[in-house]
Structures are given as structure tokens and as C-alpha cells.
Amino acid sequence: MEERKELMRKIKDEVVMLKKSPLYEFRIQNKNLPVIGEGSHSAKIMFIGEAPGRNEARTGRPFCGRAGDILNELLNSVGIKREEVYVTNIVKDRPPANRDPLPEEIEIYGPFLDRQIEIIQPKIIATLGRYSMYYIMPKFGLEFELEPISKNHGRTFDTTTSYGDIKVVPLYHPCVAVYNSHTLDILKKDFKVLESF
Asked: Do 70 and 184 form a contact (C-beta atoms < 8 A)?
């Protein structure tokens, strides 16, 4: 456990000093914080979003705004405690105006996420949103299963990693329920797949 903590701290230190990132200057100018992730370092389930928003960059915590409230509600709906899972994003710094992450930003921050996965060794990787789905599925040999998130959400894909067999579960990003409240029922239904693990 102590070793995992130390490896995570190393990632944080590297991200803090990541001057080659196109988002570094924006972070410094706006007195934002990088958002590395939070939760159990031995979590069975790892949730991966896209990039931090305004509230996340202010606090350094992932999914702490309205989308975070929805994520907490979804976890509660299937009896999972947030402190038992690990929550992070591909991109660790907030893009300006909450825009989508750019390919070069995903390329720069992706290796940090790869290391986090290797440290935590989750049995289930739940992607939140299309960007994390499009990053994770090809990474674990599931590129031929890739379809739009409207088709893949709530499905389970079996694959193998360097540390053993895992399941990848693409899910809609919780923020879809912020903008369209009827999607909350779809999200709750999709989250039920996590109950069986």
C-alpha cells in the first residue's frame, strides 16, 4: 500500500511540473490545481473521465461539482462507496472554457493514466464519456469493439492486461444528466452492471 502511495505521489509531482503541457500556462495563470485522482489505491473499480472542470481545478479533486454529485448518486444506487473506488481523468489539467481535450493533450497526459492503472490494477475500468472510452478500449485490444458511446454504453468487454484479466465498461459521462435529466435513468440502468462484480 505504501509503495502504491509513493508511486502515485511521484505521478503528482511530475504533473505539477509538466511545463511541456499546453495546459500548464493556463493552470498557472488561473491558479488552478492539477487533478490527479482520488480514492482507494487498491480499488477493484477505476472510473476514468475526460478532463477536470472548473470546480475540480479549484479543489484538485475529480468529479466534485454537479457531475460529481451525479456520480455519487449513481454509486449509491448500486451500493458502491466512493472511497472504495478510484476516480480520475485522462487529462490532469483543466482545458480552457471546459472544452473537450485535444489529441495532443491526451497524448501528453495518457502515460500518467497508464501508470495509475498499473499501480492500482483494477479489475474493472469504467470509462466515463466517449474520450476515455476511445482511449481505453484500443489500449487494451478492444479497438474492434469500438462503436459510438450511444451503442457501447452499459456493455461489458473482457480483456487482458499485464496484471491479469479485466472488464472494461463504457458509461456515459455523468454530466449528460446535468444537461438532460431523463438520461439519469439510463445511467442508473448502466451502473447496475457494476453490481455483479
From this structure: yes
pTM: 0.96
Local confidence pLDDT in tens for the 197 residues of the chain: 799 999 999 999 999 999 999 999 999 999 999 999 999 999 999 999 999 999 999 999 999 988 999 999 999 999 999 999 999 999 999 999 889 999 999 999 999 999 999 999 999 999 999 999 999 999 999 999 999 999 999 999 999 999 999 999 999 999 998 888 788 999 999 999 998 77
Alpha-carbon distances, residue 48 vs 2, 18, 64 (angstroms): 23, 20, 14
DSSP assigned state of 52: -
Q: What architecture is domain 2-196?
A: 3-Layer(aba) Sandwich (3.40)
Residue whose grid cell is 498557472? 28
Residue 154 near residue 46, CB atoms below 8 Å:
no
- Which of 142, 80, 89, 103 shows the shortest CA–CA distance to 22? 103
Coil/strand/helix, residue 171: strand
Cell of 146: 469500438
Question: Which helix (H) or strand (E) is 24 found in, with range?
Answer: helix 24-29
∠ CA 186-76-67, rounded to 5°: 60
Count other C-beta atoms under 10 Å from residue 83's C-beta: 10
